[in-house]
Design goal:
15 helices; Rossmann fold; binds nicotinamide-adenine-dinucleotide; Dehydroquinate synthase-like, alpha domain; about 450 residues; about 45% helix; alpha/beta; five-stranded antiparallel β-sheet; single chain; six-stranded parallel β-sheet
Amino acid sequence: MLSNNNSSQQQTEFNLVQVNGTWIRNSQHCQQAEGRSSAAKIYENKSDHGLSWTVVSPIVFTYRVIQCKNILDARNDTLLWGHLGDQKLKDTISNSKPVKRFVVIDETVNQLYGSQVTQYFEARTVVHKILPLPTTEENKCMELVTKILEEVHSFGIDRRSEPIIAIGGGVCLDVVGLAASLYRRRTPYIRVPTTLLSYIDASVGAKTGVNFAGGKNKLGSYIPPVATFLDRSFIQTLPQRQISNGMAEMLKMALMKHRGLFELLEAEGGTLLQSKLQSCESSERSEQEDSATASTRIAIETMLEELAPNLWEDDLDRLVDFGHLISPELEMSVLPALLHGEAVNIDMSLMVYVAQQRGLLTAEEKARIIQCMLGLQLPVWHQDCTLALVQKALSERLKHSAGSLRMPLPTGLGSAEIFHDMSEDILCKAYCKWTDELSSSGNK
Ligand SMILES: NC(=O)c1ccc[n+]([C@@H]2O[C@H](COP(=O)([O-])OP(=O)(O)OC[C@H]3O[C@@H](n4cnc5c(N)ncnc54)[C@H](O)[C@@H]3O)[C@@H](O)[C@H]2O)c1
């Protein structure tokens, strides 16, 4: 029994042990039972005001991110069973009843790959329903979530063994993730990203969401998929602009924490764009990793390093927020003129000027970064990104991040720190220089 300084308060810590199917409280000082123990604890507090309990229950999420080729080839098991690490479990499930899958697919992706998806499930004799939806940014709202939920409900799935599959860009993955996190409180789901942006960003973390009340991703959850399957061949059919869009998130990771990736993008960004990040056959056979494989791998590894320890964003100091302070405001205010990654890049470009104004970057480093952005065919300035919008976005940020700006800024090429303040003087000077030097680069 622990006594606080105040003698009228007492706290007792209990562990939980399961004996013959029943959970029993074991106090720290009196271990009454032996059995399977839980990581959860119950703290019992007695005070003059009465009795209270505090529950501490750690929740562990396990999810797999798997790079694969030919995911829609019927001989490939990944789409059906890749989420299970365990062959025995797969055999038990597939032998016990007909396999069933509910698939939500972006409408455009369905036009391009829908027949292959159908052929895959038919060849594997899977009972399936494929729901194509117009998962665009303008439609990213609760109506789409409700539509998915109604269809899932009427199709009927076993929420333990039949994950919902999302095939599409970041919007599709976010919307399906939210629907799955709501259906029967949490139904497993699988992400199959088909855009570069969703391949390296939206698919590897835990966040789901839709836009609400004019705000970007204002409704959502932190529920990761059971698995993400990454097949780069989908990217071949993306328009070039969408590839540049994804490159912005890759450049973010390079600037924040990987100089090697920055140098790769600086030297080969244009070639990567042109090849749509596809490896040529000879490089696929060679032992040495080609640039497309290396750049996507590093982007995912660095992203996972930053996300895994902070899946629920309890720690608000997040390097991956670079480019995401002003961009949500800008993206929503000009919708659909700017793509997500384009708005992120405009934000990063301004922040590079702020970093230089603060003495964190040299003029040469700043110039190299802007040149790299232009090489990736990303916009570096936008007429609607006014100083008033920037100030409003930063004051919103201040409101929602526990009284501190928590602003990631580059401190070199491939290194960064979180800063908690922003002087008005530095912001105005950086903004003016940014506009003077880059406004002629035009809006994209
Ligand atoms: N959850 C997260 O952590 C996270 C992270 C980053 C971004 N996001 C979200 O992701 C969204 C942006 O994702 P996006 O850039 O993938 O946009 P998107 O989902 O709107 O897709 C872009 C366009 O590409 C088309 N498309 C998709 N795959 C294609 C293919 N293989 N070939 C041809 N066309 C294809 C789509 O129909 C769409 O028109 C934003 O809503 C953003 O909030 C979420």
